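User: Reviewer 2 asked us to show a designed sequence for the structure in our supplementary figure. I'm pasting the structure tokens here. Could you produce the per-position amino acids so we can include them in the response letter?
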């Protein structure tokens, strides 16, 4: 079983930056594809970014490309989401997710992630 705990959310002005962290328990973290998703009020949860188990490959939603980066530190069982040039449209609850380590492809479909954190709120004011 994998447990995920996000942190780093908060209130920031448009154009500002935040870094989210997700700490994972369990020995399989270093072999798991990790992803970040977000859910705004009244909307479905959507893909933001994903990273391969080694950290060498990443994928981003078009809406955040060039502004967000994803990284991981397997020694610390932690994955990060650096968010720059934030916009009010980025306001959402952000969730960390992990795939079963049997699967190595980093995909945007939320149904293919097996473990989820509780989420952290990000609010961007205009």
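Assistant: Here is a per-position design you can include in the supplement:
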């Amino acid at each position: 079983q994998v447990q995920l705990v996000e942190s780093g959310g908060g209130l920031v002005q448009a154009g500002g930056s935040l870094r989210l962290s997700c700490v994972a328990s369990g020995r399989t973290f270093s072999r798991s594809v990790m992803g970040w998703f977000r859910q705004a009020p009244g909307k479905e949860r959507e893909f933001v970014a994903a990273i391969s188990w080694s950290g060498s490959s990443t994928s981003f939603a078009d809406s955040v490309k060039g502004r967000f980066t994803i990284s991981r530190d397997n020694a610390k069982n932690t994955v990060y989401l650096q968010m720059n040039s934030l916009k009010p449209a980025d306001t959402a609850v952000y969730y960390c997710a992990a795939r079963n380590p049997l699967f190595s492809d980093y995909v945007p479909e939320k149904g293919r992630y097996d473990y989820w954190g509780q989420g952290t709120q990000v609010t961007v004011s205009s």
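For the response letter, you might also mention the following. The mean pLDDT is 95. The CA atoms of residues 33 and 52 lie 5 Å apart.
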